[in-house]
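W.,

You were right to be curious about this one. When I first looked at the sequence I had no strong expectations either way, so I just let the prediction run and decided to look at it fresh. Below is the sequence, 218 residues in total, followed by the output.
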Amino acid sequence: MHTVRHIPTEILDAIGSYLCLQALRQCVRVSRSWSGVFIRQLWKTIDDTQHAWPRILKEYDSDNAKRCEQDEAWVIGIFAKYGQHIQHLNLHWKVTIKAASTNCDNIPAACPNLKSLSVSNVNTNLTLQQEKARDVLYKNVHPTNGAITHSTRALEALTGPLLSPIFENAFEPVVRGIRTEGQQQEDWRLVQQFWLLVYQNPQLRSSGSMIRWMSLWR
């Protein structure tokens, strides 16, 4: 006797492309075989402005996030576990770029099967902790209040080590602007992580794929 559990994988896969997120979650729970099929559809596209992502990312560096186990390690773990299924990424947070990529060209990126990649507004999406730090930093912009003078802001930004030999002489640092030393070095590393993600997804460089990158720098 045939049941819904015996539906061919190809048909289930086609059905999954029309289901909403809630329906996909329900299908994943039906059986192990269904989970193997529908999990691919469930994680096919990640847009970190949708669903619970904005709430999670807004507080991922807070004490509450650690207690709820939704901190940076959790975000990175999600991409490590399901990244193989992700084909389309639309990212607006630095931590999701970090989670999707890698720190070394000898280590595969968490998302090796991308067909499209879009990154934008990563400087305007800040956690509550980062917003507080930014406000303190902005108060020190005036020469009478601290070290961030106009001349300091115009200096070449700090850099750091290259994540891969392929980046030798590939990048030039921009001006420091209103960024701490740690932020400058983080941005330097993040730009490389983005391009490592592209490098490790050669299919992105085909004519039918899309890569969209908005500058990290302000």
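Here's what jumped out at me. The two ends are 63 Å apart (CA to CA). And, maybe more interesting for your project: The domain at 1-42 is CATH 1.20.1280 (Monooxygenase).

Coffee later to discuss?

I.
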